[in-house]
Amino acid sequence: MTLPATPRSLTGLGRTIVACELCPRLRAHCRQVAIERRRQYRDQKYWGRPVSGFGDPRARLLVVGLAPAAHGANRTGRMFTGDSSGDWLYEALYRFGFARHPGSVGRHDGQRLADAYVTAAVRCAPPGNRPTPAELERCRPFLAREIGLLKDVRVVLTLGAIAHEAFLRASGWWPRLPARGRPRFAHGAETVLPDGRILVASYHPSRQNTNTGRLTRGMWHAVFRRVRGDLEAAARR
């Protein structure tokens, strides 16, 4: 899929993303979830549409996740907002100087990011958190355009193996690098890409990982400490 028109700004791209109807399965799921709602959110109006990225247009840190959560970003309309994964992410962003507040509950909560931009491989909440390969491919131009517009990015943090591959494909490195030369996904793995940008991989802060201890708070903070150090080193060069 190619964009019908190439948005020249993140704002324009956001409008294009929100209006997207290319994946019938995902759109039907998001609308159904928005109608049914979870009991604790019965009094809230769900966003129920594709979700654009969020953050600083001059960000040096790009964070790439998997997709909006059905009762998180699909409810609130902001990436990684309103669920436990977002609680982990924004706490770390705040702790290491990228966010105004340690939490993110809705689009109008006053949260702002400084030097960071948060996005995802897929913009609609997929059933079971499992987008199909075709859905990932149809969404890829949105991530590719974000990468092109975020010209100051120096460090990319990918959350999970799917997001890791999605970034490599959207950025063009997947076909350009030999299979053995592609950065592998492993928690804490760090690679300097041919253009000088640094790619850091982490487990996704999903409940499946955080509740089982596969990803601990210490491991999570260590990744962000490394990211902050990489950015400081890049500034000195």
Commentary on this structure:
The protein has 237 residues and is an alpha/beta fold. It has one domain: Uracil-DNA glycosylase-like domain (Uracil-DNA Glycosylase, subunit E), CATH 3.40.470.10. The protein is built from nine helices and six strands. The mean pLDDT is 96.
Features:
237 residues; alpha/beta; Uracil-DNA Glycosylase, subunit E; six-stranded mixed beta sheet
* Radius of gyration of CA atoms, rounded to a whole number: 17 Å
* CATH topology group: Uracil-DNA Glycosylase, subunit E
Second CATH tier, the architecture: 3-Layer(aba) Sandwich
Q: What is the residue-averaged pLDDT?
A: 96
Q: What series of H and E elements makes up the topology?
A: HHEEHHEHEHHEEHH
Helix/strand-derived class? alpha/beta
Helix share, percent: 25-40%
Please outline the major beta sheet.
Answer: 6 strands, mixed
Low-confidence stretches: none
Principal-axes shape call: globular
- N-to-C span: 38 Å
Using DSSP, what is the number of strands? 6
Quick one: CATH superfamily?
Answer: Uracil-DNA glycosylase-like domain
Number of helices: 9
State the name of the first-level CATH class.
Alpha Beta
Q: How many structural domains does the protein architecture include?
A: 1
Q: Strand share of the residues?
A: 5-15%
Strand order of the main beta sheet, please?
A: 1-3-2-4-6-5
Provide a concise account of the structure shown.
By secondary structure, the protein is α/β, with parallel strands linked by helices. It is built from nine helices and six strands.
